[in-house]
Write a structure and sequence with these properties.
single chain, 5-stranded mixed beta sheet, 5 strands, 39% helix
Length: 155
Amino acid sequence: MVLNARRPPIRFAYSLDAPGPVNGAWWPQADQHLSGELAALVSELETRMGRIISINLNWESRSPRSPMTRLVPLGPMNHWIASFSSATDRASLLVIPAVTRSDMAGTIFRICTAIPTGMSVASAQADYQAASRILSEANRKCSLDLKMASDDELV
């Protein structure tokens, strides 16, 4: 008997209207199996952006990364960003660690895609402040990565 194993849905969002270079987020089901989910993510993105012609990951295998919690460390953070380009669009997705709490991941999704949060509860505001700091650092990192890639093309 062959069972039809269904894959869990790909958890991602992006918006071309986001104000910074990071314009979305991807929340993998398991950090150990990113490559398995990456193909499904590319397929999903291609339905929205057209054929993906370039993928850029700003990390190497087993690279450390900063957690995404309310206790955001001071100073530089090491966030993973996956960038996808088609002939007409670009999606730079902040990769949310799989172990991140769902309410915090939801806040990060909303902030990365410039969706209003409508938060009023104190704990939600703490998530919002932490997610804003995480996105600010990710945008800084993504801008540097884009500048380095642009400089490499000029050489």
